[in-house]
Design goal:
By secondary structure, this protein is α/β, with parallel strands linked by helices. 48% of the residues lie in helices and 11% in strands. It folds into 3 domains: 3-262, 2-enoyl-CoA Hydratase, Chain A, domain 1; 296-471, 3-Layer(aba) Sandwich (Rossmann fold), CATH 3.40.50; 483-695, N-(1-d-carboxylethyl)-l-norvaline Dehydrogenase, domain 2.
Length: 715
């Protein structure tokens, strides 16, 4: 049973109860529809109130249902809403918590909407590559003005109850009993408002201005092929709400939704949604009790350390930063002050809250001041010797129960832990720069890391609102390990005579926000040079191009020259400007190293070489048990490296292209470009079985899926 009902003074209260989020599944709608119809026939029922159990109205349609074609007798939320429209009773929604997607559509189909102050209303469909498909695009512009409705749907904004009341989407906001308030409204002389909900014109429409509004909206969203697929259709549907009678607008919306639900971008985005929710499903994790973190410490007040300290402050955890250099402390304080001032200016924080958070970050030069901390994150220079020295010191000073984390982006966690006598309470917490903005956090498990330490790191990640991914202990963990192969291919292409700006343009067309060379310039060519020197086994190119750029002090954006030029007097000063002298340098170094120049390299080859390098590296990490699931790698790439979410991440993309096609291309590349293109064993196995990475993970019984999970669980 997904729904239950009770009568109160002639009002039928229907409660949606489908934990955890009251998703409006086909099965639930199959129960809800007859309840609505029977209420319509029942003379003793004057009105109907919908509400949700579990502290939430509804999270919307059940996204799992979208993966298969519905049977002809399937009931959906559209059928329920059509029955409401046909009925002569009065309907109200009593909203507590979230009313999202189909949940909000159900509420908008009612005559009255009452919400508790904690309610949040929104249409997140666009994040799944969809548009509201049960009347939302037609009804929201009739409940609030068209422009705001369109922006709310395009940006997936969630309106707080007070705001929704102000905009006219809600009729009343109450402090506690929303059901009681809704019952009294519909019982005491309320009227049916069907004509209002289907009014000929949506609110706030200036018909003359409409073409301009619509064309501006189309220009503001990304092009169709670069992730804007659903957005353009959503704008079309809202335009139809204004230009067509309700009935025809609704039909247009249904058709557009039905096209999107079967589209590759939406299927990929739905994969990202579920992969994100699987991240913390790690064998043994839910049984482990995380330690309470009342105070935290950070060692190092540089850019990363400061960003991490802000993350703690934002999570409500007071933090002390150990930084011996006064100028560094001054810079860190300025960064913190500037960041919070900006938040207040943008209306994201109150002055008081910003002040409180700023005050919760303390600085000290003395390690003894963090002795009492429950968790300490080290964020010092990326050198094993330096890190070991810090960990030995921390081990001697921080209380025995304290968890020690390293923010290393590449180094061996076991080696770092060996500098302590508490290896079970050591793990990696790899934040991405800027740490207080980027959502991704890699949590790295060393050989001795205990489950409780992992559970603690995940709990802290959750408090910081990070997306935390477990990684085994390997050079570069998941993200940077895969990046090395991606970077190698980009550089190889340039060595073969494909200009960096062309490589970048092809990858941007694929959907990355920036190409690899612009990214190298952002992260620093000096940084790449140091990594290449430390680990020459990972290769940095066939030529000496990196050495040459380093010698020329072309470090990237930070000093205005790298693979590109940057002109501080133009715009933000961060726009990469093509530099033909770098192309000449590539050509010269290629000649010296005997790398043949090629012509006619297509965008398709550029994308294949860069993306398939990620796929092959990802397959190796799965084989070695460093990554738990292909979906985890996808999330790392989508949230950490700008992989276009509408392609689902590199491993999902390989499934989409066909693993056997990726494998065949890699064999061709091996033949043409050399043995570094040796395909991973896992890739070969999946290709030969005509399988998919996705189905190799879910305990499908294959040896692979089991070994992958087991390896990482005990890595
Ligand atoms: C739609 O409505 C289309 C209509 O316009 C037209 C139809 C014709 N379906 O996020 P959490 C699961 S499209 C299925 O960790 P929270 C989730 O997988 C829909 N499952 O909790 C997880 O499962 P598990 C538009 C769903 O408290 C569990 O619930 N709606 C759905 O942090 C807990 O999720 C959306 O896009 C769903 N719709 O956040 C809303 N939602 O326990 C998407 C959740 O097995 N959902 N699950 O890992 C959300 O934004 C958040 O889940 C929500 C709760 C805010 C509701």
């Amino acid at each position: 049973m997904f729904v239950r009902s009770e009568d109160r003074d002639g009002v039928r209260v229907i409660t949606i109860d489908n934990p955890p989020v009251n998703a409006l599944s086909f099965a639930l709608c199959g129960e809800l529809l007859p309840l609505v119809e029977s209420a319509g026939r029942d003379a003793s029922v004057k009105a109907v109130v919908f509400t949700g159990a579990n502290g939430i109205f509804s999270g919307g349609a059940d996204v799992n249902d979208f993966n298969s074609e519905p049977a002809p007798d399937t009931r959906t939320i559209r059928d329920v809403i059509a029955a409401i429209d046909r009925s002569e009773k009065i309907f109200a929604a009593a909203i507590e918590g979230n009313a999202l997607g189909g949940g909000l559509e159900l509420a908008l189909a009612c005559d009255y909407r009452v919400a508790r102050a904690n309610a949040r209303l929104g249409f997140p469909e666009i994040q799944l590559g969809l548009l509201p498909g049960a009347g939302g695009t037609q009804r929201l512009p009739r409940a609030m003005d068209v422009q705001s409705a369109l922006q709310m749907m395009l940006k997936a904004t969630r309106l707080a109850a007070a705001e929704a009341l102000e905009k006219g989407v809600l009729d009343r906001v109450v402090e506690d009993d929303a059901v009681g308030a809704a019952v009294s409204i519909v019982r005491d002389g309320a009227k049916r408002r069907l004509s209002e909900r289907k009014a000929i014109l949506p609110k706030g429409v200036d018909r003359l201005a409409l073409p301009f509004v619509v064309s501006q909206a189309h220009k503001m969203v990304p092009p169709e092929e670069s992730g804007g697929f659903a957005a353009h259709k959503l704008i079309d549907a809202v335009e139809a709400a204004v230009t067509l009678p309700f009935k025809y607008g609704l039909a247009r919306e249904f058709r557009l939704f039905d096209e999107l639900v079967r589209s590759k971008p939406s299927i990929a985005l739905r994969h990202v949604f579920f992969a994100e929710r699987e991240l913390n499903k790690i064998p043994g994790l839910s049984e482990a009790r995380p330690a309470d973190i009342a105070r935290a410490g950070v060692v190092g007040g540089g850019t990363m350390g400061t960003g991490i300290a802000i993350c703690f402050a934002d999570a409500g955890i007071p933090v002390t930063v150990v930084e011996p250099i006064d100028e560094q402390v001054e810079r860190a304080k300025q960064t913190i002050f500037g960041m919070y001032a900006h938040q207040v200016q943008r209306g994201r924080l109150t002055q008081e809250e910003a002040w409180k958070r700023g005050q919760s970050i303390a600085f000290t030069a003395d390690y003894n001041d963090i002795a009492d901390c429950d968790l300490v994150v080290e964020a010092v220079f990326e050198s094993m010797d330096v890190k070991k020295e810090v960990f030995t010191k921390l081990d001697g000073i921080v209380k025995a129960s304290g968890v020690l984390c390293s923010n290393t982006s590449t180094l061996d966690i076991d080696a770092i832990a060996s500098a302590t006598k508490r290896a079970e309470r050591v793990c990696g917490t790899h934040f991405f720069a800027p740490a207080n903005i980027m959502k991704l956090l890699e949590i790295v498990r060393g050989t001795a890391t205990s489950m409780q330490t992992l559970a603690t790191a995940f709990a802290v990640g959750r408090r910081m609102r990070k997306i935390s991914v477990l990684s085994g202990n390997a050079f570069g963990f998941i993200g940077n390990r895969m990046l090395l192969d991606y970077a190698r291919e980009a550089v190889f292409l340039a060595e073969e005579g494909v200009a960096p700006y062309r490589v970048d343009a092809a990858m941007k067309r694929f959907g990355f926000p920036m190409g690899p060379f612009a990214m190298f310039d952002l992260s620093g060519i000096d940084v790449a040079w140091h990594i290449a020197k430390a680990r020459p086994d990972f290769g940095s190119g066939r030529t000496k191009i990196l050495d040459r750029l380093y010698e020329m002090k072309r470090f990237g954006q930070k000093n205005g020259v790298g693979y590109y030029r940057y002109d501080r007097s133009v715009g933000s000063g961060r726009e990469p400007i093509r530099d033909e002298s770098v192309e000449a340098l590539f050509a010269e170094e290629a000649r010296r190293a005997g790398v043949a120049q090629r012509s006619g390299v297509t965008d398709e080859e550029i994308v294949q070489r860069c993306v398939y390098a990620l796929v092959n590296a990802g397959a190796l990490l799965l084989e070695d048990g460093i990554a738990l699931r292909p979906g985890d790698e996808d999330i790392v790439y989508v949230y950490g490296y700008g992989f276009p979410p509408h392609h689902g991440g590199p491993m999902w993309y390989a499934d989409e292209v066909g693993v056997e096609n990726v494998y065949a291309a890699i064999l061709r590349f091996k033949e043409e470009f050399g043995p570094h293109w040796q395909p991973a064993r896992l890739l070969e196995e999946i290709a030969e079985a005509h399988g998919k990475f996705a189905s190799s993970r879910h305990g499908d019984g294959s040896e692979q899926s089991r070994t992958t999970e087991v390896n990482v669980a005990h890595a």
